Amino acid sequence: MKIHYFQRYHQGEDVATANTMLLLSRLYQYSPDKFYLFLQSICAPNAVWDFNPGLSFNLQQNAPKSRLDAVIVQQSFKVAVETKLSDWFHADQIQNHLEVFGEEQYKVLMTLAPIHMATGKMKAVAEAIAAHQEENGYELPIIHVNITFEELATAYRNVLDDRDYEMLDILEDYLDYCYHDGLIVGANSWKFMRMQLAGATFDFNLKQGVYYDGVHRGFRPHDYLGLYKNKSVRAVGEIAAIIVADASDPNDVKYTVEKGKLTGERKELITRAIDDAKRYGYDLRKDPQRYFFVDKFYETDFQKKSKYPPRGSRVFDLTEVLGTQIIPNAQQLADLLRQKTWE
Asked: pTM (2 decimals)?
């Protein structure tokens, strides 16, 4: 049974905020350095100052009446978070929230929602912040970070590496919670490729055009599927259908269609996958499985350059990998990925 870190029994802004704060607190407990890197990354596009809240070690620092050999200091900061389940932010409410700031050196207002704040509201919030700053005479301006749940999760993932196993599990469960509660919309699935480990089953997956995974695993909506083997994504295909199959009773298999259509051919392919998996000691009838069907897997060689192998799946934003907003068809994508590498 999969362990959930984030509650799913209640919905609402309070739960979304509590779950997000738990996610961030776990990162801080795990590595303060990575937590500070995360904060820096989400503030960087908006900051006009160098946000560096971590410890600094200064040698030979002057005091009023002496000269110290060294000083260890941490700059003060406060991040005020306002969470909404839609673009329902109000400038007057934000104005009241700004009163939480005091003598901190760095002040960050984070507005968190499934979608970005509308331009008119962004302008109103900026005006409220400017008025508050002028009234209080802050040395450094308040930074407003308007961020989506998806962007927050991406920034979080970017400070982790493949050896941060516990944190990757926590992030996966947070993403699963976000999709469960509709905090991340699937409108951008067209640009994402999910990489799956496919060592022993690679040949079957490649030939049959199908990949399976336990239904308990959450996943970000994605249109492309990559198969990883021997330090590289070796095949890529565009997803045509996603079907969950509960085959605990061989005489009464229950199917749930999440994308595409359930055809007789796909039912037969699920049966073949169940039989093939037995060769590797996998019992796909024990628990429901999610089957990803592609029209065809195209062989490629998208190599991983960093030392350690990935522990599990990973999602790539193809617009970042390719440097373009136009994603080609699967065959052309396979050719382009041969020219790219990843860490």
From this structure: 0.69
Tally the domains of the chain: 2
Q: For 259-269, what is the mean pLDDT?
A: 95
At residue 145's C-alpha, the angle toward residues 143 and 149, to 5°, is 160
Nearest Cα neighbor of 54 from 71, 77, 84, 70 is: 77
Distances (CA, A) of 91 to 105, 110, 120, 138: 24, 14, 10, 20
- Decide if 8 is inside a domain: no
Say how far apart CA 315 and CA 178 lie, in whole Å: 16
How do residues 11-22 score in pLDDT, each as one tens digit? 788 889 999 999
317 lies in the same domain as 203: yes
What span, in angstroms and rounded, lies between the C-alpha atoms of 219 and 7? 17
Is pLDDT at 1 greater than 50 in this prediction?
Answer: no
Q: How does strand 224-228 pair with strand 314-317? A: unpaired
Same structural domain for residues 69 and 206?
Answer: no
Q: What is the distance of C-alpha 127 from the center of its chain?
A: 31
Distance CA 29, CA 34 (A): 10
At position 190, the amino acid (one-letter code) is W
For residue 227, give the nearest of 236, 219, 218, 240 by alpha carbon: 236
Question: Which range of residues forms the domain containing residue 212?
Answer: 187-342
Q: Give the pLDDT of residue 58.
A: 65
Q: How far apart are CA 162 and CA 106, in angstroms?
A: 31
219: three-class secondary structure by DSSP: coil
Q: Are strands 66-74 and 55-63 parallel, antiparallel or unpaired?
A: antiparallel
- The verdict on 123 and 232 lying in the same domain is no
